[in-house]
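Handout for the seminar on molecular recognition.
Each group receives one record of this type.
Step one: identify the two inputs.
Step two: read the structure output and locate the region that could contact flavin-adenine dinucleotide.
Step three: write two sentences on what you found, then compare them with the reference statements printed after the record.
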Amino acid sequence: MHTDVVVVGAGPAGSATAVWALRQGLECIVVDKAEFPRDKTCGDGLTASAMREIEMLGLDVSGRVQPVRHTVLTGPYGTRVELPMDAGLEPGAMMCAVMARLELDHALLDAARAAGAKLREGVSVTRLVQDEDGVAVEMGSGAGRETISARWVVGADGAYSAVRKAIAGPDGGRMPGMHAVRQYLDSPPSDVLSVFFPAELLPGYGWIFPMPGGGVNIGVGVQRSEEDCGVVCREELSRAKGRFTLGALGRLYREFLRIPEVAERIGGVDPDDGGDRVWAWPIPSDPDLSCVGRGRVLLVGDAARLVDPMTGEGIGQALVSARLAAETLGAGVADPAVAYRTRLDLHLGRDLRFSRRLLWVMKHRRGVEWGFKVAGLNDWTRRNVARWMYEDYPRAYVFTPDRWGRFSMRGRGAYQFADGTGGRLR
Ligand SMILES: Cc1cc2nc3c(=O)[nH]c(=O)nc-3n(C[C@H](O)[C@H](O)[C@H](O)COP(=O)(O)OP(=O)(O)OC[C@H]3O[C@@H](n4cnc5c(N)ncnc54)[C@H](O)[C@@H]3O)c2cc1C
């Protein structure tokens, strides 16, 4: 069998790649080892950037999200900052929303199928063989083993990407960045999103995100390497002989649940009783654009390690990289890997590197408190910090004048559904 593009992985990055590739007139087969609908361990938070990309894919998720109307940040010394979520926005516009990945990923995959993508579910890609004319993609095992030849392959196969390992050599499996656990707990409906920065987690954090129809998505995320951890988190991890272990992360999660404000927010629900299993998954948030493609193979989303190092948000980045990758292939350039890396650097690379630098500030209790002070100075700072945090502005916006617009920082912004009015950032 032959096709233009084989997309490995049908998460947000893979489905979006397929939609954009089909719009470029390229035939597309999407292969995923899971069967859909499938869950993905995630905080389920959608930033303004992610929601804009979802709308650009032709998908309306308006009835299925929980809009976030209040954000409360709590610092390591107990300082609280409330960010206004609607100041300066048209009614109906939103900065952030929450949607279960079980539903979001299925809806995105449906959009890819509706656009004309062919799907192979429950089949794992095991090997790639690349030459000047194309790529042979081997998948399945035993009697079900088959090979599809493609002009290009896009690896959208997440944190443990087999495609990445195939093109990056021995270093491809190295996994810097964060690791996080998540649990769904019962709780009454809410529109409040809470983020906590206890000293034990810095520069990581804990979150409580309100789910549509009630319940919360609760979890903690920490840096995997001792080098990137703050001093208290490092001590916690070094109890496990200097190595990151899931046991240590589980302990940090249990301690997080005992913080009085956290316990109060979840209303005393017993996590062993009123919730589902605790799931852990890595967050590949150590940007390295030197390995986002080789020859006829491009990487997108988590496979390309494009998650924001400071926040762990990766859905928006997955969707943006998918669009850029498909557009690069559609342009028919001689060396798509090089062209893609250049575009990626322009659209995401600068923001990811900036975010990586901010980790150093977030490692220290005083650094976080200082950030809180700046954020809470006045209405203007609170509003713009909210827009910045939820990716209404690119992360390094202030330092990249080429992206400034006429109404930057003053104009109305954030995501608006198609029937809403009011301006967007640009
Ligand atoms: C606990 C946690 C909380 C998070 N919270 C947020 C948040 O609130 N907001 C946010 O924006 N981001 C969040 N993230 C990050 C976000 O989940 C990821 O960045 C996002 O899922 C990346 O999407 P993707 O399509 O690249 O990869 P995935 O969603 O991981 O999809 C990869 C797909 O590839 C398939 N696959 C893997 N290997 C193969 C193979 N060999 N052959 C075929 N198929 C294969 C898998 O089955 C899967 O369906 C969080 C991550 C974690 C771990």
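Reference statements: Residues 118 and 250 are 39 Å apart (CA to CA). Residues 336-362 form the longest helix (27 residues).
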